[in-house]
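Quiz preparation item.
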């Protein structure tokens, strides 16, 4: 079976897509059709940072709504903004 490929909205090229939609919704289908596995991995890292920086409880409706808005911006908007206090880890 061939891998699912998409024209990734984040990387602007044909890439391997996700194995399945991340959510059972219209937005999940939009991500499945337009976001590569690599870009999804970048989002997962960004989401972890947002959860930590803003000290969000991901089970709360407010946190879920915030993360969906950030995800929409990350993939389909101007990009998810980093928190003002965020300092990238030094390697």
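Solution:
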């Amino acid at each position: 079976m061939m891998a699912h490929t998409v024209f990734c909205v984040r990387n602007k090229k044909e890439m391997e897509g996700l194995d399945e939609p991340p959510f059972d919704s219209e937005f999940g289908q939009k991500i499945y059709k337009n976001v590569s596995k690599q870009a999804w991995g970048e989002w997962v890292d960004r989401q972890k940072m947002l959860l930590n920086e803003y000290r969000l409880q991901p089970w709360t409706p407010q946190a879920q709504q915030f993360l969906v808005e950030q995800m929409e911006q990350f993939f389909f908007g101007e990009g998810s903004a980093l928190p003002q206090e965020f300092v990238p880890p030094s390697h």
